[in-house]
Design a protein that fits this description.
- It comes from Methyloceanibacter methanicus.
- GO terms for molecular function: electron transfer activity; heme binding; metal ion binding; oxidoreductase activity, acting on diphenols and related substances as donors, oxygen as acceptor.
- This is Cytochrome d terminal oxidase subunit 1.
- This protein is mainly alpha-helical.
- The protein has a domain of 67 residues.
- The chain contains 19 helices and six strands.
- The protein has a two-stranded antiparallel sheet. It has a two-stranded antiparallel ribbon with strand order 3-4. Strands 5-6 form a two-stranded antiparallel ribbon.
- Helix 3 runs parallel beside helix 8.
- The radius of gyration is 28 Å and the shape is globular.
Length: 553
């Protein structure tokens, strides 16, 4: 297979996935924020909170619809661009996606309609239940998708079946409670909460700068700052958990993120900044923080983190073991085909029960490393004929691009700490500063709106690019996963996807800007009447703090 086909297939999926993820974080976070706002409305009865729920709910609806449009095409790509991947691991990967469609997406889509059209048809508590179900459905969708993605990072609960020549699920429980999937879920969802909080806070800051919808803006900032601060703190804590799981399940990715070429004595230092040189296998002008990496990745003082060079040597041994498994597997297949062709055994009897015990044992003893032998397919059709030089090349292929991972990870982490400081400042001002915000802070809040999307895209880049050269880590190389397509076909579809998704992104931005400029147009008269009555009540308070009776009362 041409490497160009694989690269273009990867580029096309990366483009569609990153476009789609422009919509996902805001959906996750806004669904919870509007549920919080409506909860306050039900508890207090103040119309301003219903107005806030409807206004931010409108922006949520725009984002949700366009997010669905960009997400549907992604699942079709598994069959179109990654057909061998779908055949090889579809038994495991397809199950969480099917549950997501049947449970989470239908739940979310059903209750979204009730959210928008049920205000006058449902009781307050009934509509609040609907809103929380929308939030639950959004987050359940993320859970099942990240369970599928987590299995690609750490393929547990499955085994290769030489009878079907496919990976098959052995334990749905292990797939569901995969530690990588769980860490990715809470980290990704928290990042979505931060994204929505920054968005709500930034738009509200713009209203305060324009002196429009001040009451809605002040209350929205209070909710977004409190919710965003808790979320930003959890992103950092849960990101640390992701790093800890990577130290056990994806050691090469962790070493590449750190640009750790050689194994250091425990506890390893953390490279704050530097310039990784993959050719020379060293990091120029590196600034280290002693002990930090060892403490974060292993939570101990005596456990070592293997460096890239040590992991490459380990990959060589696994490739050699995988060659043994591949050779045994091919001989087992040859024996079965010969038995079928001779007619000495019925087809149904030609199974694992008739295999040579020696071959079967050789395969089972080395089957965990079969995927490493498949790395040689890039250089030789038959891995058993690979030369030492080809094994060396395949082992070096297990090193992802270090410099891109090194810098994108640090940009993501830098944004994470910026969000903590940003949210803490606005939380302090909204809680203890009388909701008085300096003009510079409001301008900064508006300018910061794109930042969480940049951080989220960086996070996905680290997660997916850092897994290379694997589609399923240690099981299936990316170079073998793609469909048999031509370069011309991929250029055409890539151009079509980019054009279509760009149009949807422009529509999203146009609609968002239109409705933000329009402001909270629903329930305006009722909200203003309530606020005016509330002001009159406050004005009628006597010196003792008791409300004096008014003529209206």
């Amino acid at each position: 297979m041409e490497l160009g086909v694989v690269e273009l297939s990867r580029l096309q999926f990366a483009m569609t996935a990153m476009y789609h993820f422009l919509f996902v974080p805001l959906t996750l976070g806004l669904s919870v924020i509007i549920a919080i706002m409506e909860t306050v409305y039900v508890m207090t009865g103040r119309p301003i909170w219903r107005q806030m729920t409807k206004f931010w709910g409108t922006l949520f609806g725009i984002n949700f619809v366009l997010g669905v449009a960009t997400g549907i095409t992604m699942e079709f790509q598994f069959g179109m661009n990654w057909s061998y991947y779908s055949h090889y691991v579809g038994d495991i990967f397809g199950a969480p996606l099917a549950v997501e469609g049947l449970m989470a997406f239908f739940l979310e889509a059903t209750f979204v309609g009730l959210f928008f059209f049920g205000w006058d048809k449902l009781s307050k508590v009934g509509h609040l239940t609907v809103t929380w179900m929308v939030a639950l459905g959004s987050n359940l969708s993320a859970l099942w998708i990240l369970i599928a993605n987590g299995w690609m990072q750490n393929p547990v609960g499955s085994v290769f079946n030489p009878d079907t020549m496919r990976m098959e699920m052995m334990s749905f429980y292990d797939v569901l409670f995969n530690p990588v999937a769980q860490a990715k879920f809470v980290h990704t969802v928290s990042a979505g909460y931060v994204t929505a909080s920054v968005f709500v806070l930034g738009v509200s800051a713009w209203y305060l700068l324009k002196d429009r919808h001040v009451e809605l803006a002040r209350r929205s900032i209070s909710v977004a700052a409190a919710f965003g601060l808790a979320s930003a703190l959890s992103v950092v804590v849960l990101g640390d958990e992701s790093g800890y799981t990577a130290s056990h399940t994806q050691r090469m990715k962790l070493a590449a993120i750190e640009a750790m070429w050689k194994t250091e004595p425990a506890p390893a230092s953390f490279t704050l900044v530097g310039f990784p040189d993959q050719e020379a296998r060293e990091t120029h002008y590196a600034i280290h923080i002693p002990w930090a990496m060892g403490l974060l990745a292993t939570r101990s003082l005596d456990q070592t983190i293997p460096g890239i060079e040590e992991l490459v040597e380990e990959a060589k041994k696994r490739i050699e073991s995988g060659i043994v498994a591949y050779d045994a597997l091919m001989k087992i297949r040859t024996e079965r085909e010969a038995a079928r062709a001779s007619g000495t055994r019925p087809t149904a009897d030609v199974s694992s029960h008739t295999d040579s015990p020696e071959l079967r044992k050789a395969f089972e003893d080395n089957s965990d490393n079969l995927g490493f032998a498949l790395l040689l397919k890039r250089y030789v059709d038959d891995p058993t004929q690979a030369t030492p030089e080809q094994i060396e090349k395949a082992a070096n292929d297990t090193i992802p691009g270090v410099a891109p991972l090194f810098w994108t990870f640090r940009i993501m982490v830098g944004f994470g700490f910026l969000f903590i400081a940003f949210m803490a400042y606005f939380f302090w001002k909204s809680s203890f500063g009388g909701e008085r915000y300096p003009r510079w802070a409001l301008i900064f809040a508006v300018c910061l709106i794109p930042a969480p999307w940049i951080a989220a895209e960086m996070g996905w880049f680290v997660a997916e690019y850092g897994r290379q050269p694997w589609t399923v880590d240690g099981v299936l190389p990316t170079a073998l996963s793609a469909s048999q397509l031509s370069v011309q076909e991929l250029f055409i579809t890539l151009g079509g996807f980019v054009t279509f998704y760009s149009i949807l992104f422009i529509i999203e931005m146009a609609l968002m800007i239109k409705f933000i400029r329009k402001g909270p147009y629903q329930d305006v008269e009722e909200t203003e009447a309530w606020e005016a009555q509330h002001e009159r009540r406050l004005g009628a308070m006597d010196d003792s703090g008791l409300a004096a009776p008014s003529p209206a009362e």
